[in-house]
Amino acid sequence: METLDITFDARHELTGEVGSVKCGLCAEAARGRMLDSGALTRGFGWDCPCGALGVHARLHDMDELYRDILEVWGLMPRDPDLSPPTPVGKSGFLSAVYVDGPALLRDLFAEARAQGAQVASTEVEVRLVVPGFSSRASIWTVLWARVPRQAE
């Protein structure tokens, strides 16, 4: 498994570049960058020379990231199909919805394929490096899509 260090300064601003990772579709080195789109703002993505785009996404956040991932990939965005919210008794919460991350990922990939994209996922071991703080490495899921180029 690949290992990637992402370094921040004391103000938690990215220093240097986001390292490259292997593309999930062609295994070439994909250049890393910080994203600035919707719920993915300050998240991480990778651009491969083959045209694939990789996005770091936590499965437990798929309900919030779903639409933005499709948009970053250059696909028609849509909201995921979720169960309707249900009241949470007298807890003070307005509603609760169970989010099945793996099922939403399968649905996201099916949607991307229906729009003509090739998709894959990979895992990368990532260590966030911040002055005065030492984090343990964590496993990140990177979701990849390559959309067919449109004839010009």
TrEMBL record:
Domain of life of the native organism: Bacteria
Protein name (Swiss-Prot/TrEMBL): Lipoprotein
